[in-house]
Amino acid sequence: MKSILFITLILLFIGFTPLEVISQEIEGEPSRFKKPSTYAWFHSYGKVRLGEKLFWDAQTHIRTTQYDGTDYFGRMAQIYNRHGIKYLFSKRFSATAGGVLRLNFTPQPDNNNYENIVLEPRIWHEYLFSMPFDYFKVFHRFRIEHRWSRTNLKGSDYRYRNRYRYKYYMYIPINRQKLEPGALYFSPDVELIMQSGKSVRDNPIEDLRFTPKIGYIVNPRLQYSLSMMYTLGQSNLDGARYSTRWIFNFNVYYSFDFRKFENKIPETNFMD
Amino acid sequence: MNQKIFLCFTFFLILLGTDIHAQETQIYKGKYNLQNVGEGLAEYHYFIKQKDTIFEGEFSFSNLVETSGNNSFESISYNGSYKKNKMQGDWVFSFKAIDSVGKLRAKDFDLVSTTSGEEFLVKGFFDDHEQKDTWKVIRRCFNNSKPTDTSLTAEIDFGRENLKENFSSTAKNISVDGVFDNNGMIDGDWIIIHNINNTEIKEVRKFENGVLTNHYFSVNNEKIFVDYLGLDMSKNANEKTWSNHDFNELYTEVLKIANISSYTLDEFDVHLDDLSQISLDFIKKTFLSSYKHNDIAFWDVVSQKAIDVDHLTVSLRKYPLSIDEKKAIKSIKSDFVEIQNKISKFNDESLVEIGLHQYETLKTTNEIYKIISENLVDLKHNVDISQSKALPYLDRSSLDNRIFKTIEFPNKSRTDFQNETLIIETNLPSAFNPLGFELPVFASFISSIKQRVTELDSASDFILDDLKKQSKLNEIEDKLVSKKDSILKFYKANENDEKFNKYHEAVAFEIIKYTKEQFEAYASLEIDEKKRKIDFYLDCFDEIISLYKMQAELPSKIERIKDLYTRTVWNPYTYTDMKETVKERIYESFDEILLPHLLEKFNNEIDCESISKNIKNFNNLYNRMVELREQDTKQIEKALKREKNPMLIFEILSVNYTE
């Protein structure tokens, strides 16, 4: 327990250490960090149980960003629909595949050179490993996305890129011995997003996200979390330039069981 | 031309041959099972028609069964023939009881021996499955496989239309000759000759169309008539009330009850009614033996369809029972049984003998029961006749003391009790006089006796219970001490007692204190009080032991309710099985309000009445919680919102709760 907490703190420390400190020793063009932009993300995560091993993964995200002097909530940034079918191989491993349709809103609503909304389709598949410990859980998530995106500038072309995402996160109960209804939990969350494609030159690191979350389990079918995320990633135009963001994040997690009553009886667990 | 005739003739022969082939009889020889008889060896001719076996031609069957280890056997054999499954021609049925078997000797490839015993034999003739010609019944002994004495011969002549014409039968001491009318009913003079000490006594029963019209004995040229009371002996009037009956037990019972002759032939020391009964039984059994042996209708065993046996038939007039009479018959039976049971229960009670000298009630009961018992034989005689199936065939209004017994009970009885003379009012009905007999009157007489016996039974039971208790007090006290010791052991904290839990611990001190107080309170009682109250203390200690057992089960019961109201759901975000409470308001009401409320009562109300009440309340709550889990409880859950009052919650949950 203690060792895991220690590792988590180290990771957080590294995550929040300004990159200038790391890059001081390296020769060449120094890294430059843009002033952080601000976002507010409201995400809903749905898992609808269709069968003993099958789930429908349904996510809807609404994201706003700073604009015209208003931080976080200045304008609509994206509306995000992610759907997929999850297959639960065991209680320690699952795989999901599906599609995404993201609506990117114009960064300059008053500028006629920009289209108000641009569609960004994606295909995604992910592989989630769960590691149970006595008092907490550790997850390793590998997600690969194939995306077709373009800027909102009128006449801009779609470009194809692949994203390689690795996410490490934990669920650590705070006020209970285990994760159960009524439990407050702390979820340290770090995700590295790499990318490849013709347009990717010196900017393979698209994003590195640090998300320390505080959550609450209302019941087995509903929980919430709140966090303030910090991200940094290489700019499309110049790999030495890093964009940074502060993102206020509120998530709702819900699940339904569409199976018949008699199929809902949980299997007997002989291992615990 | 000749060739054509030859061809036609050949074709005709082929057709004929096919037909003959279809009806061709076969012979079976081997093991064969006859229903109600068993397995034996049979040989018979038959053919198959539409997959059915049709008997055609000779049939023989015999079996041999060892009845005990000492060379005793029984053998049944049939010999006869069929025509298309119908019995046709001579048939012989034989039953042999073989008592001894001679030495075995070889004959060809068989082992044979001589036998001795008795044979019952019936020879008859069937025509198209109907009884015809002369039938013979013989019972004889055989020795070394040869017939010796014949103990019975009987002949029945059947004429046309399957009807009997003559009947004659002879046995060692009796012979019968009789005829039948055109309808097959017993008719004319039936002459019975009784042979007593080598002297013949002639009995004549005259019948007209099955009705017994006259019955007398002829002794030394003198006629001694047999009188019947209540039996209609002429078929002149009320023809509708007459009906035909088999010459069976019912008929002989009717004649037996109605026969009021008591004449005795002094020189032979024989009662005429006994001779009457012998002749009735002889006729009945002999005729019956032509188709029944050992209660098996033996012709039915081999007949492929039922034989319409011509029974011996008589005619009787019926006097239907009124509704009141039927009620009376029913009540006489039940009342008399009750009287007998209560008297015999009293007489079988060993404590009566001691109590008689101590308690006047027991002495009185004993005296009155003695009076009834002295008349019990006569009472039973009257009751038996009233219950007889023959009664509806007798004119009840003409029955009197020649058939029923007169019964009289004294009003008072005198006896000695504790060195003084005790005069007892019997309070029994004074008398039953059979003159002008009426069933309801007799029923009322029996009912009055039963009422008095019931009074006495209840009064004596009270005293006998007290006596029993007194004699068993020591034994019961041992039980009380044992129960007290058990309670003290149960509630004394003991590491080895796995059942002892926090619920026991919470009340242990008070329970031990209360048990000791109760036991001391009992011990300080007077002996009469002890007898009266020991049951209360036994029950009280039983309740405390029940409380201990209930408390031992409490953790598992509480856990069971928790399990019932908990379900496991998979959380797809945290990847864990999570438990959640269902019907949360109901479970919380139980867990947070009702259970603590009852536990508090268990802890604070330590007295027998409250313990019993609280156990019941808990069991009712537990059972209701189990029931509610499976029911639609939306309304109940709505009503429970913010409710904290345990009494109201019990009401909302419909728990049967006693304050």
Protein architecture, described:
The complex is a heterodimer of chains A (about 270) and B (about 650). Chain A is mostly beta strands. Helices cover about 5% and strands about 60% of the residues of chain A. Chain A has 2 helices and 14 strands. In chain A, strands 1, 2, 3, 4, 5, 6, 7, 8, 9, 10, 11, 12, 13 and 14 form a 14-stranded mixed beta sheet that branches. In chain A, strand 4 (about 70-90) and strand 5 (about 95-105) form a beta hairpin. Residues about 15-25 and about 265-270 of chain A have low confidence and may be disordered. Chain B is α+β, with helices and mostly antiparallel strands and about 650 residues long. Chain B has 3 domains: about 1-315, no CATH class; about 325-470, no CATH class; about 490-650, no CATH class. Chain B has a 15-stranded antiparallel beta sheet that branches. Chain B has a two-stranded antiparallel sheet with strand order 7-8. In chain B, strands 18-23 form a two-stranded antiparallel ribbon. Residues about 10-20 of chain B have low confidence and may be disordered. The chains are: A mainly beta (about 270), B alpha+beta (about 650). The interface between A and B is medium-sized, with 27 and 13 residues.
What is the count of β-strands of chain B?
A: 29
Low-confidence stretches of chain B: 11-21
Q: What oligomeric state do the depicted chains represent? A: heterodimer
- Quickly count the helices of chain A: 2
Mean pLDDT of chain A: 88
Total discrete domains of chain A: 1
Cα gyration radius of chain A (Å): 20 Å
Which structural category do the helix and sheet elements of chain A fall into? mainly beta
CATH architecture of chain A: Beta Barrel
Key structural traits:
heterodimer, A: 272 residues, mainly beta, Lipocalin, 14-stranded mixed sheet, 2 helices, globular, disordered C terminus, B: 659 residues, alpha+beta, 15-stranded antiparallel sheet, two-stranded antiparallel sheet, extended
